[in-house]
């Protein structure tokens, strides 16, 4: 069965510090991978998505970056965190496109607080 | 940018009541999905609808996709406290086959 692992679950970081959040998927090959941020427990904002190794599409200009060094590994990074980077970060994977989009499977999320 | 408007934003009801939440857009979607999210967790997929007019049932939950594939509704019969959570709709549109556009959600509280 497919599983998705996301860590850490919670993180408190000072302003200006670096960030690295990791997400790995098991039990599937060549998944589409996504990073979302959710503010105040409401809508999800797509940050990055990847349809293959080394392929990253950015949705929102910001001081965050993403990388996909392996087929089932997706990393969200920042060199210098801002207060506005605080939020709930979710990794997700999917297969299929368009009519055959079978939905996302989300990780359990990382609560990031920048202080 | 395709937008999904969900209504109501907040809903508080008593256990045993019925409810309907809505997801509307001016855009056509290839497919539409509903998720439920509990505090501190990632959203969990409930259902995917693909065909205009499609109705799917999941125990006490009934999902309908509009004929024109622009809107959807979720009806819960005899709500239980375990139904409490954030209900999100999300759609795949023709211009972005890989990405889902999410609504802002309906926060449902079912009181005992």
Please, could you describe this protein's structure?
The complex is a heterodimer of chains A (115) and B (112). With 115 residues, chain A is an all-beta fold. In chain A, 0% of the residues lie in helices and 57% in strands. Chain A contains no helices and eleven strands. In chain A, the strands form two sheets. In chain A, strands 2, 4, 5, 6, 9, 10 and 11 form a seven-stranded mixed sheet that branches. In chain A, strands 1-3-8-7 form a four-stranded antiparallel sheet, with no helix packed on it. In chain A, strand 7 and strand 8 form a beta hairpin. Chain A is globular and about 40 Å long. The model of chain A has no long low-confidence stretch (mean pLDDT 89). Chain B is mainly beta. Chain B is built from no helices and eleven strands. In chain B, strands 2, 4, 5, 9, 10 and 11 form a six-stranded mixed sheet that branches. Chain B is globular. In chain B, 38% of the residues are buried. The mean pLDDT of chain B is 91. Chains A and B meet through strand 5, strand 9 and strand 10 of A and strand 4, strand 5 and strand 9 of B.
Structure in a nutshell:
The complex is a heterodimer of chains A (about 120) and B (about 110). Chain A has about 120 residues and is mainly β.
Q: What descriptive keywords fit this protein?
A:
heterodimer, A: 115 residues, mainly beta, 7-stranded mixed sheet, 4-stranded antiparallel sheet, B: 112 residues, 6-stranded mixed sheet, 5-stranded antiparallel sheet
Could you say which structural class the secondary elements and strand pairing of chain B correspond to? mainly beta
| Helical amount of chain B | under 10%
What is the helix tally of chain B?
0
Could you give the order of the helices and strands of chain B?
A: EEEEEEEEEEE
Radius of gyration computed on alpha carbons of chain B = 13 Å
Beta-strand content estimate of chain B: over 45%
Enumerate the spans of chain B where pLDDT stays under 50 for 5 or more consecutive residues.
none
Oligomer: heterodimer
Number of strands of chain A: 11
Assign an overall shape of chain B: globular
């Amino acid at each position: 069965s497919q599983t998705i692992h996301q860590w850490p679950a919670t993180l408190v970081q000072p302003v200006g510090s670096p960030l690295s959040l990791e997400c790995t998927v098991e039990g599937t090959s060549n998944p589409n991978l996504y990073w979302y941020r959710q503010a105040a427990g409401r809508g999800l904002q797509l940050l990055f998505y990847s349809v293959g190794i080394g392929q990253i599409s950015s949705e929102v200009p910001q001081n965050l970056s993403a990388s996909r060094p392996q087929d089932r590994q997706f990393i969200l990074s920042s060199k210098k965190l801002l207060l506005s980077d605080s939020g709930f970060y979710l990794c997700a994977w999917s297969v299929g496109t368009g009519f055959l989009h079978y939905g996302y499977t989300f990780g359990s999320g990382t609560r990031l607080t920048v202080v | 940018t395709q937008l999904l408007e969900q209504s109501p934003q907040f809903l508080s009801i008593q256990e045993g009541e019925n409810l309907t939440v809505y997801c509307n857009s001016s855009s056509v979607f290839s497919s539409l999905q509903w998720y439920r999210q509990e505090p501190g967790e990632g959203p969990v997929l409930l259902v995917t609808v693909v065909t205009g007019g499609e109705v799917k049932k999941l125990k006490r939950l009934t999902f309908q996709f509009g004929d024109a594939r622009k809107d959807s509704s979720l009806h819960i019969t005899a709500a239980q406290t375990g139904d409490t959570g954030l209900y999100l709709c999300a759609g795949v549109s023709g211009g972005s086959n890989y990405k889902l556009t999410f609504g802002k959600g309906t926060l449902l509280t079912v009181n005992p």
